[in-house]
Design brief:
mainly beta, Jelly Rolls, 2 domains, six-stranded antiparallel beta sheet, 35 strands, 3% helix, binds beta-D-fructofuranose, Glyco_hydro_32, Sucrose-6-phosphate hydrolase, glycosidase, carbohydrate metabolism
Length: 467
């Protein structure tokens, strides 16, 4: 039986922290965020016995990347979420430095979690175990211990099991770093979730025509969609381009053909999933009606994060909205999941010159905009969306230095759908061809104003809070 010595401290942190977090104007009204402490990756996203479950990396004890538990929410409709008891705490030898990211599967009616037990040594080294935990009759999770030890040929950075069923087997992808310090994705196969056989590397830095692409690939997720197979991954250390891969920790996807018999993946180049300032470690799942959903961490583990002003209220980071994926010409498209339309209030409209558009309250707002370009959206002088005929530029001041920083989406952007919630903006370009997700921290009420010479057609809704 796992020890639970930290439980009183967590309980106190939550009782003290939640009222404080809710007093923060930056706290989201309809996105998932931690009641207190730090949230990072979505984990174990699954539709199981009529409910959606979303677990998450959570440090309930502070705003630093320490003491990673699995928090747990569930929902019947992807809109209204309820808290569930903490699913996993790092209280065994094999996960003592964190119950790191992973996934959930339905194993013959048993909700089963696959996660990484992270272990650090005093000399700076580390190891990792891929572990299982199975839901018990009370709804809690019983740890069943490691099922995959650290494979030979890799450093201690092997983690983030994403497990799925295909025909008669279970498959697992893992993020890994080889001994040459190249990021890789490993594939494993099992008949029973307990005994795993390695099928080798299926993608990574230096493989399948990909050049030098980073020292570690985190959080892989492989799935079929439309006529293609997609591999999502987070390649750390990919070289920055002039206008792409500008986050030190980017999220990317490969699109191609996967052959189960040969365990081989033929794919094209790395593409950005989201070109905004904050997006990382997304995970997907399937709905009962076969839709592929994605949710991401609206955060990145970089030097700016600890300067986010929400830490003064004892919390940091949030999830993206749930998104629905589709494939078009081999590309991954993302749109807000249709269930979110339930949050819309009355529809309002504007048509005319962008400069004459009314100012809007961006605290909880959804916008659908059409224009041929030259429109600038100004969110409380803190975040600017500069929409031109052939590109989109997002500008935000550095939280550390105050200088303007930029992110780009290149292409003919004719339609934007923008979802706003307190301190976040998600911009869906051309029905989901591109997405830019970013946090911003206005000091005055979040007002959105428009400028520019172009004709603008807008439909917009105020969104109702639901958390
Ligand atoms: C990605 C990540 C994962 C790891 C987890 C730890 O953000 O670094 O690779 O499992 O976060 O919280």
């Amino acid at each position: 039986m796992a020890s639970t010595t930290r439980l009183p401290a967590i309980l106190q942190a939550v009782m003290k922290g939640q009222p404080q977090a809710l007093r923060d104007d930056h706290y989201p009204a309809w996105h998932l965020a931690p009641v207190t402490g730090l949230l990072n990756d979505p984990n174990g996203f699954i539709h199981f016995q009529g409910r959606y479950h979303l677990f998450y990396q959570w440090n309930p004890l502070g705003c630093e990347h320490k003491y990673k538990c699995w928090g747990h929410w569930s929902s019947a409709d992807l809109v209204q979420w309820r808290h569930e008891p903490i699913a996993l705490m790092p209280d065994e030898e094999y996960d003592r430095n964190g119950c790191y990211s992973g996934s959930a599967v339905d194993n013959q009616g048993k909700l089963t979690l696959c996660y990484t037990g992270n272990v650090k040594f005093d000399d700076g080294g580390r190891t990792a175990w891929q572990c299982l935990a199975v839901q018990n009759a009370e709804g809690g999770f019983d740890k069943r211990g490691p099922v995959v030890p650290l494979p030979g040929g890799y450093t201690g950075h092997v983690r983030d099991p994403k497990v799925w069923r295909h025909e008669h087997h279970w498959y697992m992808v893992l993020g890994a770093q080889d001994l040459e310090l190249q990021g890789k994705v490993l594939l494993l196969r099992s008949e029973n979730l307990w005994n795993w056989q390695s099928l080798g590397e299926i993608a990574g830095s230096g493989l399948n025509g990909i050049g030098d692409a980073g020292y570690m690939w985190e959080c892989p997720d492989l799935f079929a969609l439309g006529g293609k197979t997609f591999l999502i991954c987070c390649p750390q250390g990919v070289e920055r381009e002039e206008k792409r891969f500008l986050n030190a920790h980017p999220s990317a996807y490969l699109s191609g053909e996967f052959d189960y018999a040969r365990a081989s993946f033929q794919h094209g180049p790395l593409n950005e999933i989201d070109a905004g300032f904050e997006f990382y470690a997304p995970q997907t799942t399937l709905t009962a009606d076969g839709r592929r959903l994605l949710v991401g961490w609206m955060g990145v583990p970089d030097g700016e994060e600890m300067h986010q002003p929400t830490t003064a209220y004892g919390w940091i980071h949030q999830m993206t909205c749930v998104r629905e994926l589709s494939e078009q010409n081999g590309k991954l498209y993302q749109q807000p999941v249709r269930e979110l339309q339930a949050l819309r209030g009355e529809e309002e409209r504007y048509q005319g010159n962008a400069a004459a558009a009314p100012a809007l309250n961006a605290q909880r707002l959804e916008l659908e905009l059409e224009s041929a370009g030259d429109v600038t959206l100004n969110f409380a002088d803190t975040l600017l969306v500069e929409w031109r005929r052939d590109a989109l530029r997002l500008a935000r001041r550095s939280l550390q230095t105050g200088e303007w920083l930029y992110r780009y989406w290149q292409g003919d952007a004719h339609k934007l759908q923008i979802l706003c919630d307190s301190s976040s903006v998600e911009i869906f370009i051309n029905e989901g061809e591109g997405v830019m997700s970013s946090r911003y921290f206005p000091t005055q009420p979040a007002q959105l104003t428009f400028s520019g010479s172009a004709e603008l057609r807008a439909r917009y809704w105020s969104l109702r809070p639901c958390m």
